[in-house]
Amino acid sequence: MDGNEQELKQQDEGYALMGAAFEVYNELGPGFLEEVYQEALEMVLAAQNFSFVSKPHLDVWFRETKLQKHYEADLLVNGKIVVELKAVRTLAPEHEAQLLYELKIARQRIGYLINFGSSPRLQWSRRVL
Fold first, then answer.
1. What is the dihedral of CA 121, 21, 125, 58, to 10 degrees?
2. Which of 13, 93, 97, 114 has the highest local Cβ count within 10 Å?
3. Distance CA 4, CA 9 (A)
4. Which long-range contacts (CB under 8 A, 24 or more apart) does 33-37 make?
5. Does residue 43 come out as left (phi exceeding 0), alpha (psi in the -120 to 50 range) or beta?
6. Is pLDDT above 80 for 74?
7. Residue range 6-46, pLDDT digits in tens
């Protein structure tokens, strides 16, 4: 698969991921805890045959030494899309920064920040390193 085909496949996966997120938001709406949205999103992703890891442990390295502290993304979808979920009134710069740290640590290029707490619609952003 060449680079262009790979990019198109990743875009399709991103569209499908966001379709699942919109499905959850449209049914539940805002107001629940982040964990509720995560569980519901995982149900939809599993039903759509997505491969994902819930709460993947992301090791942090410093000078070739693995640190005891680690990060935990909310989801790693298809082994390459880092997903950070929120249930807040509006996204803030620190939420974007968290996604960027997780992308860097996970050594992945594509990440989605999805906020189920906003109203009247789902708030989200896609980041590519």
1. 140
2. 114
3. 9
4. 33/87, 34/74, 34/85, 34/86, 34/87, 34/116, 36/87, 37/85, 37/87, 37/116
5. alpha
6. yes
7. 666 677 899 999 999 999 999 999 999 999 999 999 999 99
Estimate to the nearest angstrom the gap between the alpha carbon of 82 and the chain centroid.
4
- The total number of residues shown for the chain amounts to 129
DSSP line for 88-115: SSS--HHHHHHHHHHHHHHT-SEEEEEE
- Residue 57's identity, in one-letter code, is H
Calculate the alpha carbon distances from 42 to 52, 89, 90 in Å: 8, 22, 22
Name the β-bridge partners of 66: 61
Q: How far apart are CA 13 and CA 83, in angstroms?
A: 12
- CA nearest to 52, candidates 83, 9, 10: 83
Note the Cα 48 to chain centre separation in Å: 16
CB 116 within 8 A of CB 87: yes
